[in-house]
Structures are given as structure tokens and as C-alpha cells.
Amino acid sequence: MELGAYIFMHCTGLIHVALPSGIKEITYMMFYECVSLSEIIIPENVETIGSCSFFGTGISKIVLPTTLKYIEDRAFYGCTKLF
User: Fold this and answer.
1) Which pLDDT score, from 0 to 100, does residue 2 have?
2) Any bridge partners for residue 49, and if so which?
3) What angle (nearest 5°) sits at the alpha carbon of residue 63, between those of residues 31 and 83?
4) For residue 83, is pLDDT > 80?
5) Apex CA 53: angle with CA 60 and CA 71, to 5°?
6) CA pair distance 2, 76, nearest whole angstrom
7) How confident is the model over 56-69, as pLDDT tens digits?
8) Edge-first strand listing for the sheet containing 25-26
9) pLDDT at 64
10) Which of 30, 43, 57, 79 could form a cystine bridge with 21, CB 3.0-4.6 A?
11) DSSP string, 40-61
12) Where are the beta strands (DSSP E) in 1-83?
């Protein structure tokens, strides 16, 4: 299963996301500037988090799966509540 780049970009009403277990990649800019997004559940099958995937989101906590192999540049850039 694959969800494309930009799919949730600028969805300001998005607060919580539980990705399907079949997904292997969080694509480029998937949640770009979803400022209300504070919680995401990343399933164990995910291997890659793409560049700028969570850029500017409101995420304050994230649990990374053990299957994760690669986090591309600026994946969490601008996530001021995360750090």
C-alpha cells in the first residue's frame, strides 16, 4: 500500500492519524504544515520517512517503529513541540 506525496498537505483540521499497517513509507511532504496534527501512529512496517514529511506539524510525541531504516532530511523540521 502506498499513499502519495502531499496527500494531507495543509490539512489544518487533521489532529490524529493512524496509518494502515500495509504502508512502508511516509512520503515526501505527506503531512506538510498540518499544524493541528499532534499525534500519529506509525505502524511497524514503515521503513522510510521522507523529506519534509512532518514539516511544520504540531506533533509533540512520536514513537518510531523498529522497522524504520531511513529518515530523510528535514523530516521533522519546524516541529517545535516535538523537541
Assistant:
1) 78
2) 26, 71
3) 75
4) no
5) 90
6) 20
7) 999 998 889 999 99
8) 25-26, 48-49, 70-71
9) 92
10) 43
11) EE--TT--EE-TTTTTT----B
12) 16-18, 25-26, 39-41, 48-49, 70-71
How much is the average pLDDT of 49-61?
Answer: 95
CA distance 22 to 37: 21
Q: How many residues does this entry show for the chain?
A: 83
Contact between 49 and 28 under an 8 Å Cβ cutoff? The reply is: no
**Dihedral of the alpha carbons of 18, 32, 22, 42, in degrees to the nearest 10:** -50
Block residue for cell numbers 506525496: 5
CB 60 within 8 A of CB 36: no
First CA to last CA across the chain, in angstroms? 30
